Structure formats: structure tokens, C-alpha cells
Amino acid sequence: MEMVYILGGVLVPVAAYVIVTYNRLVGLRIRVREAWSDIQVQMKRRYDLIPNLVETVRGYAGHESETLEKVVRARGEAMSNQGSPEAQAKSENALQSTLKSLFALSEAYPELKADANFRQLQQELTDTENRIKMSRRFYNGSARELNVAVEQFPSNIVAKSFGFTPAEFFTLDEAEAEAASRPVPVSFR
Fold first, then answer.
1. For the residues 175-188, what does the mean pLDDT come to?
2. Best exposed site among 9, 160, 161, 188 by fewest CB in 10 Å?
3. Tens of pLDDT along 8-24?
């Protein structure tokens, strides 16, 4: 009888730990999926804005068809890429790059820059980019929490036993990362 109490005294806390850890890992995994879904919603919003923006630019700068085609092509590639966050980040970075060239066109065409529809679309796209950045930070924070739980001892034993794997981060492109790491120049002239 004494052996039953000893076994129960050991097994009950271990079983409780496994259950609590498993439930925590499930919650973290769901939070990562939710955060990824938020990113996808914001990217879809961006994809929906781009055709309107391209058509507005086409009205003023139709002969800039190469730039417009690059934007449309990059949008199509980004929309069709439903892979991992790392793969999606590559196509999103390419899309951002082409959008920058599209906005650079507005500098060469003052009447385009003055167009109310263009300015509104540009503002909506800027707002969407900010939402994507916020969603990306939330996703990466959620992924970090899950990854720590999956790799930290002793929860890694439970994670391995039930097939939990680390989440991929949704990373900055190299130019953005480099810009973020540079100090901001300050001048008091």
C-alpha cells in the first residue's frame, strides 16, 4: 500500500505537469496561427489596393508600363505564395520593392502626385503597411514564446512527445534590417 502512495505521489505531479505544459503549448501554437492569420488579412488588403493604384498611375504615366507590369507581377507572385513565413516574406519584400518604384513615379509626375485618388490610395497603402508591421511584430512575439517553450527544458520533452515544432519568424528584408540597425544621424546646426 505504501508503494501505491509513493507511486501516486510521483505520477500525479508528473501527469499534472504534462497536462499543463501540453495545454500551454497548444495555446501558444494557436496564438501563432492567429497572428499569422492577421498578417495574411493585412496582406490581402494590400493586394486589393494595388490594382486601383496601378490603374490610377496608368492614367497619368501609361508609358511607364514596365514599372506597372513589375508591380502587377510581384503582386501576383505574393498572392500565390502561400508557403512558410520565410517564403512569404521573400515575395512580400519583392512586392514592397516594386511598390517603392511605383511611388517614385509620382515624383516625376506632379499631376499624379496631386491626384486625390492617388493620394488616398497611397495613404491607405501606407496604413496597411503599418498594420502589417504591427501584425508581424505580434506574430514574431508569439513565435518566440512558442519556440522558447518548445526548446526549453523540461517543456521540450512534452513538446517533442506531442510533435510540437518551433515556428518560423516573419523577418525583415535585408535593406529594412540594415536601415533599422543604422544609427539615426542627429545634427544640431
1. 46
2. 188
3. 888 999 999 999 999 99
The SS3 of residue 92 is: helix
Query: Running DSSP on this structure, what letter comes out for residue 152?
Result: S
Any residues with CB less than 8 A from the CB of 137 and at least 6 apart, and which? none
Q: Rounded to whole angstroms, how far apart are CA atoms 173 and 35?
A: 19
Residue 98's alpha-carbon distances to 23, 25, 50, 146, 151, in angstroms, are: 43, 39, 11, 33, 38
Query: Does pLDDT of 108 surpass 90?
Result: no
Q: Which residues contact 96 (CB under 8 A, 6 or more apart)?
A: 129, 173
Rounded Cα distance between 55 and 162, Å, is 50
CA 185 to chain centre: 28
Write down the pLDDT at residue 189. 45
Nearest Cα neighbor of 146 from 125, 169, 129 is 169
Dihedral sign for Cα atoms in the order 39, 45, 51, 56: negative
pLDDT score for 50: 92
Q: What are the b/e assignments for 7-41, b being 16+ CB within 10 Å?
A: eeeeeeeeeeebeebbebbeebbebbeebbebbee
In the numeric block, the cell 517564403 is attached to: 87
Amino acid at 3: M
Helices (H) then strands (E): counts for the chain: 7, 0
Rounded to an integer, what distance in angstroms lies between the CA atom of residue 184 and that of residue 55? 36
